[in-house]
Amino acid sequence: MAQKIYALLVGINDYAPEVGRLAGCLNDVDHFNEYLTSNFNKSELAIEVLKDSEATRGNIIKQFRKHLGKAKAGDVAVFQYCGHGARWKSAAAFKEFYPDGKDEGLVCYDSRGPGGYDLADKELAVLLAELAKKDAHVAVLLDCCHSGSGTRNVNAFKGMKARLTHEVTKERPLESYVDGYYAERQKKKERLAIPASKHILLAACERTQLAQETVNSSGVFTDTLLEVLSKSGGGNISYADLFVRCRAAVRTRAEDQSPQFEPYENFDAYAGFLGRAASGAAHRHRVYFEVDSQAWKIDAGAVAPVPGIPTDSTKVVKVALYRGEDAASFAGNAAIVKVGPQTSVLQLDFPPDPEVQQYQAEITNMPAAPMFVYLEGETKGTEVLKKALTPEVGAALGVELTD
């Protein structure tokens, strides 16, 4: 259990007319607040809430540093944002990182006023890097759109609407990013780099999708997340298992919305949610027989659940299968023979029971995912290192050079 949970909850409904009002963001913040106060002791909690006009760009940055910045080793820092998401033309200096030349981020209450700017992903990276120095358990929950569509999506069949506002086409100046962080580095002739930090991101949808609001005025993602947490004993569940259950549930409620959980810098995806102890079933994934393809499949793939299944066919991933209502009875073993983005095909090493259409699977071996390292420094030295890392040496060390 965490020593203390520092939570910064941000919700905005009352946007300017040209941005587009929302209906469920304040409810989402209230519901998550209720979850925290119902499942953690009061002495463990330090919650700061910003709603509507309180959630200006300046206030969000200030409270991120002031409030979440109090978290230290052993504590949890959680940032929740419910509101509009948007994309816009980023500073040209970021082109090498994102060829599409776009920023993605959060539309603050005053973002779209004269001289205002949204809170960009590259700015959140700076704030998270500052927080990471405290060595706290950091989680970010974003219930907003990450799509570049210029119109608000309305689902006429389900009465849902998307948390997306129009895209800004004017290029953003580099000095406008938080405290001139990137402009200062460019001025000093330093190599421009977006800070990386250890945390987990829980996002409502994929980069090109829309995050929907329900007719009951709540976010589909937040509503589903809290429901899954409730069914898991108030949150005794790992992030990886939470992701699998949450994604499956959201897909039954919203069209073209797939939540994404992304661990960064070796964040343990199998750690318990917000520092709680994960239940014994936390490492399990659903296995089912798909009639269309006449194949057994597992709810795990190259991009989900985190950390993901390697696509290299030489790296065999094996799983143990369990049956029964409580998934306590061992049925046999299987191997993943074909990896897809979200699901993979299994080859069972035992004849399945004709009466059993689903199993629970536990991954018994997971080849380590590759870590990309950038070589920077004196040219002669880096060239010597590259020559020394022959394919044979690299194979022995688990290192592979790429362009």
Class based on secondary structure composition and strand pairing: alpha+beta
User: What fraction, in percent, of the residue positions are helical?
Assistant: 10-25%
What Rg is obtained from the alpha carbons, in whole angstroms? 22 Å
CATH architecture of the largest domain: 3-Layer(aba) Sandwich
Q: What is the fold-level CATH name, i.e. the topology of the largest domain? A: Rossmann fold
**Total count of helical runs of at least 4 residues:** 8
The stretches of 5 or more residues where confidence is low (pLDDT under 50) are: 147-161
Task: Indicate the mean pLDDT.
Answer: 82
Q: Report, as a whole number of angstroms, the end-to-end distance.
A: 43 Å
Instruction: Please state the overall shape, judged from the principal axes of the Cα atoms.
Output: globular
Strand % is 15-25%
Order of helices and strands: EHEHEEEEHEEEHEEHHEEEEEEEHH
Biggest sheet record: 6 strands, mixed
CATH class of the largest domain: Alpha Beta
Widest β-sheet, arrangement of strands: 2-1-3-7-10-12
Annotate the secondary structure layout.
Blueprint: E1 5-11, H1 25-39, E2 45-51, H2 57-66, E3 76-82, E4 85-89, E5 102-106, E6 119-120, H3 121-132, E7 137-143, E8 154-155, E9 160-162, H4 181-187, E10 199-203, E11 212-213, H5 220-231, H6 239-251, E12 260-264, E13 284-290, E14 295-298, E15 318-323, E16 329-339, E17 344-348, E18 358-365, H7 379-388, H8 391-397
Parallel strand pairs: 1-2, 1-3, 3-7, 7-10
Antiparallel strand pairs: 4-5, 5-6, 8-9, 9-11, 10-12, 13-14, 13-18, 14-17, 15-16, 15-18, 16-17
Helix pairs in contact: 5-6
